[in-house]
């Protein structure tokens, strides 16, 4: 009986540790909403439109690229691929959680950067 209680306790403890390790805190990320062909936000090579916003949208809609957020150092994948369109080529602040394994921000909201 003592072994069963100990086993149940250890199992519950291990589950709590694993869950807390997977749960990331919500935070904000600020950078330029760009696309996977131009992950640094520089669209001079692609020139798929008259400005960065047009090029970003064209790359996503016509080439199957995905929206990213580039913060000046790193490009992050975005879980939501609809909301970013309104901020394409512009600086934005995204609130969400980062999955470090996939480098993906689970988007909760996007606002124009101040």
Overview of the molecule:
It is a single chain. It is built from two helices and five strands, in the order αβαββββ. It is elongated. The chain has a single domain (25-112), classed as OB fold (Dihydrolipoamide Acetyltransferase, E2P) (Beta Barrel), CATH 2.40.50. Helix content is 29%, strand content 31%.
Notable traits:
five-stranded mixed beta barrel, 114 residues, alpha+beta, OB fold (Dihydrolipoamide Acetyltransferase, E2P), 31% strand
Short overview:
The protein has 114 residues and is an alpha+beta fold.
Helices and strands in order:
Elements: H1 2-22, E1 27-35, H2 52-63, E2 67-70, E3 75-78, E4 91-99, E5 104-112
Parallel strand pairs: 3-5
Antiparallel strand pairs: 1-2, 1-4, 2-3, 4-5
Helix content: 25-40%
Quaternary state reads: single chain
Largest sheet: 5 strands, mixed, barrel
* Form type: elongated
Calculate the terminal CA-CA distance, rounded to whole Å: 61 Å
Radius of gyration: 20 Å
**Which H/E pattern describes the elements?**
HEHEEEE
Q: The CATH topology is what?
A: OB fold (Dihydrolipoamide Acetyltransferase, E2P)
Structurally, the number of domains stands at 1
């Amino acid at each position: 009986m003592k072994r069963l209680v100990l086993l149940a306790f250890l199992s519950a403890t291990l589950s709590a540790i694993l869950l807390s390790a997977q749960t990331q805190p919500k935070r904000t990320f600020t950078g330029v909403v760009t696309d996977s062909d131009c992950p640094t936000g520089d669209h001079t090579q692609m020139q798929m439109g008259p400005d960065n916003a047009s090029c970003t949208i064209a790359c996503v809609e016509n080439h199957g690229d995905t929206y990213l957020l580039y913060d000046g150092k790193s490009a992050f994948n975005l879980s939501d691929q609809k909301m970013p369109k309104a901020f394409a080529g512009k600086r934005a602040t995204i609130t969400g959680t980062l999955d470090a394994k996939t480098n993906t921000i689970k988007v909760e909201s996007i606002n124009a950067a101040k």
